[in-house]
Amino acid sequence: MIGRAPMMLPPQYVSPPMPTYPGSQPSGGPQPWMPPRVQPAQQPQVKPQGQLAVGDSPGAKLQPVQPIVARGKPYEDPPAPPIQPLNKNNAKSAPLTLPSPQELGVPATERPAAKVDWNATHERLEQLGGTGFQTARLSDGRFRVGFVLRTNQADQVHHIEATAATQAEAVAAALRHAEQWASGQP
């Protein structure tokens, strides 16, 4: 172990000065010790607004005294009025409408193409005497539909073709032409 234990000094006591009282005269002999007089506690003085407290100089600025608020914050705004129940006689309801995608900032897209009901198409083609059909998408994006129909002569068939922007439109146009041909209309 390096060094040695710290040394503690004994506590020192200092006696308080002897109180002196006004009117007492020091005499030549020792005087008995008397406890100091305790004065009653004074309540803090609150200045009325616009008055000076004792000890304030007459030229001091008057500062308003802030009121003491027990809740932490004084009410600044009046309370909100109570909510009234809905009167159905005064309520006028407008029909609800949804904004369009363009109004919401969604770019316009092409509508989905109508689908072809192939079961109904095959059934109607069979009723008209159809023996075959063909569909093709052209290089410009349009569709071409072709039907093969029987005729009264055994070695001949009749071809019907229709071209449209969508496959459903092309099928519908070809069926209209096939119905016209089957009914004998030019």
Write the layout of secondary structure elements.
Elements: H1 118-127, E1 130-137, E2 143-150, E3 157-164, H2 167-182
Report on the structure:
The structure is a single chain. The protein is built from 2 helices and 3 strands; from the N terminus they run H-E-E-E-H. 14% of the residues lie in helices and 13% in strands. It has a 3-stranded antiparallel sheet. The chain is an alpha+beta fold. Strand 1 and strand 2 form a beta hairpin. The longest helix has 16 residues. It has a domain of 51 residues.
Task: List its salient traits.
3-stranded antiparallel sheet, 2 helices, alpha+beta, 186 residues
What is the number of helical segments per DSSP (H or I, 4+ residues)?
2
Largest sheet: 3 strands, antiparallel
Assembly annotation: single chain
Could you say which structural class the secondary elements and strand pairing correspond to? alpha+beta
Strand adjacency order, main sheet: 1-2-3
Terminal residue distance: 128 Å
The ordered H/E elements are HEEEH
Our estimate of the beta-strand percent is 5-15%
Q: Provide the residue-averaged pLDDT.
A: 76
Structure summary, number of beta strands:
3
Unreliable stretches (pLDDT < 50, length at least 5) are none
Shape: elongated
Tell me roughly what share of residues is in helical segments.
10-25%
Rg over CA atoms, rounded to whole Å, is 56 Å
